[in-house]
Amino acid sequence: MYLLIIILHKEEYLEDILSLFVELGIEDAAIIESQSLTRALAYDVPIFAGLRFQMEGSKKYSKVILALTDNPDIGDELVSILKDEDIDFDKPGTGRIVLLKTEKVFGKPEEVEI
């Protein structure tokens, strides 16, 4: 079992990524709104207020997508398919994709009736 983590800074790509998840059979996922450490320091810790100039024009929040999968190659597959859709995680500011091997998973996914 693997934990797929996508830190997405460009929210306009969220729908494309979620659609791709469905195509790849990834249904057990959660989406969390997040904030970078630099932004939190710049706006929430007065001593770091000087960092605010670096934040000009950047979005306040990002999305973090967490998903469980049995596919050890899902990261490479996602990167390849997304590049074909002109979503390139190698470009600065797009985000990051991380795949971690998990030892154990407790609990079952939420069942949603559609």
Which percent bin holds the helix content?
Answer: 25-40%
User: Termini, distance in Å?
Assistant: 26 Å
Strand order of the largest sheet: 2-3-1-4
Shape verdict: globular
What is the total tally of β strands? 4
Largest sheet: 4 strands, antiparallel
Describe this entry's structure for a reader.
The chain is α+β, with helices and mostly antiparallel strands. It has a domain at 2-34 and 62-101: 2-Layer Sandwich (Alpha-Beta Plaits), CATH 3.30.70. 25% of the residues lie in helices and 25% in strands. It contains 3 helices and 4 strands; from the N terminus they run E-H-E-H-E-H-E. It has helices at 14-23, 37-44, 74-84, and strands at residues 2-8, 29-34, 62-69, 95-101. The longest helix has 11 residues, at 74-84.
Features:
Alpha-Beta Plaits; 114 residues; 25% helix
Short synopsis of the structure:
This protein is α+β, with helices and mostly antiparallel strands and about 110 residues long. It has helices spanning about 15-25, 35-45, 75-85; strands at about 1-10, 30-35, 60-70, 95-100.
Furnish the topology, listing elements before pairings.
Layout: E1 2-8, H1 14-23, E2 29-34, H2 37-44, E3 62-69, H3 74-84, E4 95-101
Antiparallel strand pairs: 1-3, 1-4, 2-3
